Amino acid sequence: MDTKNFLFCSLDAALIGDVAWQVSREGHNVKYYIEAESDQEIADGFVEKTDDWRAEVEWADVVIFDDIWVGSDIGTGELAEELREQGKAVVGGTPNTDHLEEDRGYAMEVLEDQGVNTIEHHIFHDFDAGIQHVRENPAPYVIKPLGEVQNVKRLLYVGSEDDGSDIVDVLRAYKKAWGHRMKGFQLQRKVEGVEVAVCGFFNGESFVEPINFNFEHKKLFPGNIGPSTGEMGTSMFWAGRNRLFEETLGRLEEWLADEGYVGSIDLNCIVNDTGVYPLEFTPRFGYPTITLQEESFESGTGAFFYDLANGRDPELEVHRGYQIGVRVVLPPFPFDDEKTYDENSRNAAVVFESNNREGVHIEDAKLVDGQWRVAGESGMPLVVTGKGETMQAAREQAYSRIDDITIPNLYYRDDIGERWVDGDGDRLHAWGYLGPA
User: What is the C-alpha to C-alpha distance for residues 38 and 7, in angstroms, rounded to an integer?
Assistant: First the structure.
């Protein structure tokens, strides 16, 4: 493909720097805009920056928004829709697809309207009403905050008591500590099974094949314990339109086409021998999922996004085995503590024991005089990936690459991909979800 101009836009936190870097390394022209002042040094030295994304729209062949963001008067989905109406090629959502993530109740309505099974769920705007519901209907539940605090990952709580008593205790605590900010929450009946996300790239009319199937690891510590984070790592593979896809995202193909959606959309589910039960949408790139997906592309990343944004069917070639990505983090992640960050992590040098950078991807990092350094304020400098014919081989490659990296005080989960090895894969195969629909 001829050289193209790509404009990457982070209208909130800076998330898409690694993909921008990859596209630039393929020989395309890249400009990257970051709105958040605290993040503006992220990807410095890796990609060219701009301080006015609107001034670059005419220059760009493709505009890529990295996240859902709703400003005081207009959101990312609305911006993307307006640019498409002006004839621009855009990777981004629509107001309605943004709403899938912002409003879990709306998301469940859309799923039900398209014939997708959903878990029993109830929306509450009053803590006492939620507590009364649990007492009258004792069972294990999951608490999912709504509104402005829904991205405070540690507030998502998965109950463990059959009578729901722990849910009652947590709701009481949230009422006292978060009542002024948590204006609503969803209580979702807890379902046991394999947690798996179905992820597809949509070109405005249909899904691009192959489809991505990934497994998130959200808790901070190995063994899936500790506070919830955005994500500590991901394992994945690619496949065709199997039963798992057709019973979930496949049923939304017409709805997404009516919306004119362009980009990645992910539906996280619980699967067991009785059915597939969606949990939540990610109608945008996932992080660090997109980094791992990009690593598994064997065709050009720039060409893929150019074709996707222009409504074409990209000839996507991917690694056909298994892949894992491990997020390497620093204090005080996943919490915010400026003093701790300043003392332990700010501007820390990333030291490599060899010249090999294969499989190492940037998140909150910058390049200063040839030296990789930690940037931003979140303590998430790197994602390290591995690929293999088996999940265990992918694990071994990723963790051997991490052994080559030194940053003071770094930490990471050492069990990414183990769930597949320990039986999740066997269960999905045995239940018939990975075969033809």
Answer: 20
